[in-house]
Specification:
The complex is a heterodimer. By secondary structure, chain A is mainly α. Chain A is built from 15 helices and no strands. Helix content of chain A is 78%, strand content 0%. The longest helix of chain A has 36 residues. Chain A is elongated, with a radius of gyration of 30 Å. By secondary structure, chain B is mainly alpha-helical. The longest helix of chain B is centred in the first third of the chain and has 33 residues. Classes of the chains: A mainly alpha, B mainly alpha. At the A-B interface, helix 2, helix 3, helix 4, helix 5 and helix 11 of A face helix 3, helix 5, helix 7, helix 9 and helix 11 of B.
């Protein structure tokens, strides 16, 4: 249907024509397109070094073609193709600057602790809020055990309430005869996994809620603290405060730290939106988002560790002193990892 | 179609275009993806996640029944969690920065500042998604569970959470809350095949149009004509050919495609010549 260009006529054509422009450059575009497709499918490893050197040249040739075409050509199909090709090329050529391994290494060595360090103020505030929540409910329940049911769900408590006997409470901590009888069960890893996924969902939510100026985040963290304090009051009223502490401490240092960090991340976003400072509000929000994104990946990893400690460590180790020791060790580890100053990554 | 309508649709298109200058100094003119495309992409992803989850569950059930161990429960729980949390993150960290749903719709995620899309930005934008999708559902859920809450209060809660979820409808850049936090945009990135050049060698044509006959149309009409020619639908070609013939006062003498093709070539040559001299005639209403 479309007759081929007559070569004899082409010589008479004006020295610049968009058809001639296209005929001259088309090979570059096709070559670039092919390279990009392979790069997208198989990654940089699929290209030879020659092809890798060709890539930026072809990219620049395509961009220059796009500029010329925009100024001279009215062929919509051509313009659209060049635009799409340039966009694809731009993101591939400028997209990746380091290998996955390097990225991972930098994340663990520098980015993660640095992100956590930078939200230290928020972490402190959230920790205080959790503590405050715990103290509130502790004092309320100590004075009047009836308050307990306002703070802890009946399902969550699983019989651990002020009406329970000392023996029962002891058994929930993994001590006494009842606990020894239960040891045979093999549901530990299922339990650990459940705890991990559940806690992760809660902390993701507490991070995401930060958007509403951080208020729901603080409420959620306060509520978490309340549950904790109420339980504490029940156990210490029966003289089991020390044992309960160990039961909580072994994984609690990691888990509560992670909870505080997720709340801190949410709070950082909330405050960035309300008080952007000298930057634009959008800029401030996106800066905060990037820092806290790193914190949140860290939080999920921490919760994974806490899940392991809770599911395995706590059920297998019943000695209260040892539980305290492991819990403190974990806390020291996290504190050292995050807050000991180190040289920043130069690259 | 009047001049005003044309101009309006042009400004509407221009509103969707964002300047995005590469280090080489070329503006890539990214187009913001529409809310409809975004929603369809989400829907496709949700369906795919559910399907994967179903297959995974069946597999785990099969293995679990065969081996009689509860390790499969652990694997299933972890798998479901990873799938739900990292489906979006994993795909958007890839070189195409798009989930299968987004690829299908021809859109992708980019960093708003023109830099590269970093992992933390992708994580941030997708963790916020939890809130956007599940908060309205949660509001509904708790509202139904607790009868004490009045219907109006539930409605207020759902509306409040919906304003968070539908945030992208209320801003020009179609940013979700997650996009806002992560500093990202979702833009058009469909692939366009390089179609054959239909404007080659205008001189080879039998029909020759006069300057007056070519002067009736501008760039908008030229590109519409190009669309019809590439579409190759005989009925559309007949309609367009008749319209042009009526406009320039030519009798029906040639085949429609021959007529349209030679008219297209000469009109394109004329408009491109003018373009080289700095005159861009947007449509037929603009002065020649």
């Amino acid at each position: 249907m479309i007759p081929p260009a007559a070569p004899a006529r082409a010589l008479d054509a004006p020295s610049f024509s968009t058809s001639r422009f296209r005929a001259e450059r088309e090979a570059d575009w096709i070559a670039f397109d092919l390279l990009l497709s392979r790069l997208e499918k198989k990654g940089a490893a699929a290209l030879t070094s020659d092809e890798l050197l060709q890539l930026p040249l072809l990219y620049r040739a395509t961009l220059s073609s796009l500029s010329i075409a925009r100024a001279t050509s009215l062929d919509k199909a051509l313009l659209d193709h060049l635009e799409a090709l340039s966009i694809r090329g731009y993101f591939l050529v400028y997209g990746v600057r380091e290998s996955r391994w390097n990225r991972l290494r930098r994340f663990f060595l520098y980015d993660w602790p640095a992100a956590v360090r930078s939200v230290w103020k928020e972490t402190l505030i959230i920790s205080l809020i959790i503590l405050f929540g715990a103290l509130t409910s502790y004092s309320l329940v100590s004075n009047n055990p009836e308050w307990y049911f306002n703070f802890v769900d009946e399902d969550m408590a699983g019989g651990r309430d002020p009406r329970a006997t000392v023996e029962y409470l002891q058994s929930t901590l993994g001590h006494g005869k009842a606990a020894a009888a239960k040891k045979g069960e093999s549901g530990l890893h299922v339990f650990a996994t459940y705890l991990f996924t559940h806690n992760s969902q809660v902390s993701i939510l507490s991070f995401a809620l930060g958007f509403a100026f951080g208020v729901p985040t603080m409420m959620l963290e306060y509520y978490q603290g309340m549950g904790l304090g109420a339980m504490m009051a029940v156990f210490s009223a029966k003289g089991l405060g020390y044992d309960f502490g160990g039961w909580l401490f072994i994984h609690g240092t990691t888990e509560l730290f992670a909870a505080a960090l997720s709340g801190a991340a949410g709070l950082r976003i909330g405050t960035a939106v309300v008080f952007p400072g000298a930057r634009g509000r959008l800029q401030a929000a996106s800066d905060a988002g990037r820092t806290t994104g790193k914190v949140m990946v860290g939080v999920i990893l921490m919760l994974f560790a806490a899940g392991l400690l809770e599911g395995f460590g706590r059920q297998l180790i019943t000695d209260t002193m040892l539980r305290y020791a492991i819990g403190s060790l974990m806390l020291l580890f996290w504190l050292a990892y995050y807050y000991i100053p180190r040289r920043e990554d130069v690259t | 179609m009047t001049a005003a309508v044309n101009a309006k649709s042009r400004t509407a298109r221009a509103k969707k275009i964002r300047q995005f200058v590469t280090p080489e100094g070329v503006d890539l003119e990214l187009k913001i993806a529409s809310a409809g495309l975004r929603f369809s992409a989400l829907l496709v992803d949700m369906i795919l996640i559910q399907l994967t989850l179903l297959l995974f569950s069946l597999l785990m059930l099969w293995i679990g029944l065969a081996s009689q161990s509860d390790t499969t429960v652990v694997v299933w729980m972890l798998g479901a969690f990873l799938l739900r949390t990292f489906w979006f993150i994993g795909f958007e960290l890839g070189s195409r920065a798009a989930t299968p749903g987004k690829r299908l719709m021809g859109i992708r995620v980019v960093a708003r500042d023109g830099g590269r899309l970093t992992a933390d930005a992708v994580v941030a934008r997708n963790l916020i998604r939890e809130l956007e999708i599940f908060l309205p559902l949660m509001m509904l859920g708790t509202g139904i569970a607790e009868d004490a809450v009045s219907g109006w209060l539930i409605l207020a809660g759902v509306l409040w959470s919906l304003t968070l979820s539908l945030f992208l409808l209320f801003n020009r850049d179609r940013m979700r809350m997650g996009d806002l936090i992560a500093g990202t945009w979702v833009v058009m990135a469909q692939r366009v095949k390089l179609d054959a050049d239909i404007g080659v060698d205008a001189a080879g044509d039998a029909m020759v149009f006069t300057e007056a006959e070519l002067a009736v149309y501008g760039i908008f009409e030229l590109q519409e004509l190009e669309r019809v020619l590439r579409g190759r639908d005989p009925r559309a070609m007949r309609e367009v050919a008749d319209a042009i013939r009526a406009k320039i006062g030519r009798p029906v003498a040639e085949e429609d495609d021959v007529f349209l093709l030679s008219y297209y070539r000469q009109l394109k040559a004329r408009l491109e010549r003018k373009l080289l001299f700095g005159k861009r005639r947007e449509d037929k209403y603009a002065s020649d």
